[in-house]
Structures are given as C-alpha cells and as structure tokens.
Fold this sequence. Notes:
Blueprint: H1 8-15, H2 42-50, H3 64-77, E1 81-85, H4 88-97, E2 105-109, H5 114-121, E3 130-134, H6 139-145, E4 150-156, H7 168-177, E5 181-185, H8 190-193, E6 203-207, E7 221-225, H9 227-241, H10 247-257, H11 260-279, E8 286-288, H12 298-304, E9 311-316, H13 320-329, E10 334-335, E11 345-350, E12 361-366, H14 372-397
Parallel strand pairs: 2-3, 2-4, 4-5, 5-6, 10-11
Antiparallel strand pairs: 1-7, 6-7, 8-9, 9-12, 11-12
Helix pairs in contact: 3-10, 4-5, 13-14
Pyridoxal-5'-phosphate (PLP) binds at residues 87-89, 113, 156, 160, 185, 187, 207, 209-210, 219, 221.
Protein name: homocysteine desulfhydrase
Enzyme class: lyase
Cofactor: pyridoxal 5'-phosphate
Amino acid sequence: MTKQNDREWQYTSAAHDAVDERHHGSINIPIYQTSLFAFETYDKFQQATQSSQSHHVYSRGNNPTVRYLEDKLAELEHAEMAKCFASGMAAISAAIFSVVRTGDHIVCVDQAYGPTREFVHRYLKRFGVKSTMVDGRSVDNIREALLPETKLIYLESPTSMMFQLQDLAACAQLARSRGIVTIVDNSWATPIFQRPLELGIDLVVHSVTKYISGQSDSVAGVVLGSGQLVSRIAEDEYMLIGGIMTANTAAQLTRCLRTLPLRMERHERSALAVANHMAGQPYVLQVNHPALASHPQHELGLIQMNGSSGLFSFESAEPPEQMRQWANRLRLFKIGVSWGGFESLVTVNPANDACTSEARSLIRLHIGLESVSDLILDLDQAWAAVSAADSNIASAAD
Ligand SMILES: *Cc1c(COP(=O)(O)O)cnc(C)c1O
C-alpha cells in the first residue's frame, strides 16, 4: 500500500467489526463493569491465571471492554499489541520505565511535551537515570548525544509547540544499530496521518485525551508496539503501577474512534485554511505548520506523514500582552490548554529560544470542527477590535 492511497481502509477499520456471537450480536462491545472474573472450576481458574494476557482474571490486568479498544487501536497503528492507560502520562511513564534502569541514559528531544521532559530529566534522576536533551531536527545531534549506556531515544514528531520534526526512519536505524529502544509520541499526527512503527520505531505512545478522544471529555493514553515489548509493559508497569483504563472510559473512547478518520480530515482541511490565512496577516511573522511549504522540514513531513492535524502555532512581533488582548476578543476560540477536541482553542506564550529572533509571542491555535469561514472571520474581527482600541488610545494621547 502506498502512503498516499491508504486512507480508505482506516474508515473500515474504525467502523467495522465481525458479528460477535459472544455478545448476542450486539454491535457495540458491552461495558464489562466488573473488577474480577469468576471460574467454575479450579482448573480453569489456574489455567487463566497462568496466561492472564489472553484470559480475563482481574480488571487491573485485562478487561474485555478495554481489550476491545486496545485491539482496535493496534489495528489502526499497525501494532502487534496495545495497552491503554488512565492518561497519556501514565502511558508515557510506563513505556519509559519499561526500558531504563539505574545507570542508564536517555536521549530526549528538547521540545517534547513539558511533563515528559520533567519525568525524563528531573524525576528519573532519583533512580540514577541520566538524560540529554537535544534538538531533534538533526539526527547528528541525536547521534552525538549517545553514550555507551544510552538505552532509550525518546522522540515526539512533530512537537506540539514549535512543530519540529525528527527523521523517524533515520532515528530508528541509528537506534537499532546500537541496540537502543525508540519511543515516539504520536499524539499530534494520530495513526491516521503517521505510523512510526512502520518506520522502524519500537514503541508509540499517544495522549488519547487529544484527537483519539476528540470530545474533550476524557483523559486517557495508550502504548503500542511489538507483542514482546508491550506484553512486558502489561505484566510489569500496568499491573504494578496500576494506571489502568476503566471499562467505562474504554466504551466511551470506542464511540470516539468510529469517527477518528472523519474528524482528522476535517481538522486537517480547516487548519490548513486557517494557517494559510494567518501567514498573510500583518501581525504574523511566521506560521509553524508542517504541511505549509514554508516549514523548514516540509519535505521530511511529506515522506513520513500522509496528512496533518489541527494544531499549529504562529510567531508574532507583538508582545504577549497585546496578543492576550486579541485572544480575549476571540468569540469562537476559547482560551485553554489541551487540544484535539471539537472546539477551537488559543494560548498565548512569550516567544521561546526556538522562535525567530524578532518574535515576541508564540500563539498556538487548535482548529476545531466549527465552520472554517466563521473561524477566520473571528480571528480577523478580534485583530480589528484590538487595533481599533490601540488607535483610540493613541488618539486620546495626542
Ligand atoms: C497532552 C499531551 C500528553 C499527556 O497526555 P495526558 O493524557 O494529558 O496525560 C503527552 N504528549 C503530548 C504531545 C500531549 O499533548
């Protein structure tokens, strides 16, 4: 299957299941609202406890409703196995814990999700795990940071503030040649637009809270990869740290999954339209969106992704106070963290080191499912209102 032509099977995968006679043909998986599973005989009980991955013994380990969602996500991501967690961070910390031990070293991209960097760089120090943060845009940076004791290369492509990419195939090749495990946070692209396991990456993690949910009503995570790596996580970190997903959350997320391909296409189209519009605005210095030809890693994006989602940022020479006034005047965009839901969102931050030298603000937009022309009108009216307020102040001062 070529990268460009493989969108359609995802619709079938998300929407279709064989008739399941165990559930009377119910077309939705029942919510197995149970903590434990009982057995008629001790023999059957012992058989199940000996292979608790393939049997149902206790819901901290393996609940049928959660397993259903895990199998669905594994199919979409082309993974042998998936394990769902209570949050993205529960999935990320479990995946990292499964790879490192005292004395090991991690190379991590310096623009990764903030709490992930905190976990790797600060929290893991107490266990004697060291780390080096690198600009992941060049594989050479990653190679130069490797130590004999490096056991993990942690990636996030694209990153979710500056939208910087890593060359996933090259990173995977480098890591494999040294016996190092690779993890990629794929929350931005989702399996609809990027499947890192096909590029040789060992483990994929998602904040399911974002696009896979899409409804801004749950917090959840998943780890995906080979049966060998993920079943180890299921037996150790899932069972022992216990950040599990409940059957209710899994059922809710299964509903969300049905429309994932549909929603992603809408987010993609709308975000591109808004990003192109923003690129022409006088208060915008630069738009950071991997699918725009102006993005410095646009070509790499075309190679390793087959689409783009609804979150991007732009840089402005206006100070954050001014852009916050602009954000206050937006009617359709709400001010808030997170992203991936039906609703459009905005955050305004001071420009960081990765921004262009003239930039004073970094504004992140999530483009939701509203009318794209309404969203563009909203962005424009808010700027017109802020500019008018400015010129009133200026003329009052004259
Ligand atoms: C939100 C987020 C996470 C953490 O996920 P939670 O579900 O909030 O724990 C991880 N990575 C990225 C890129 C995120 O945006």
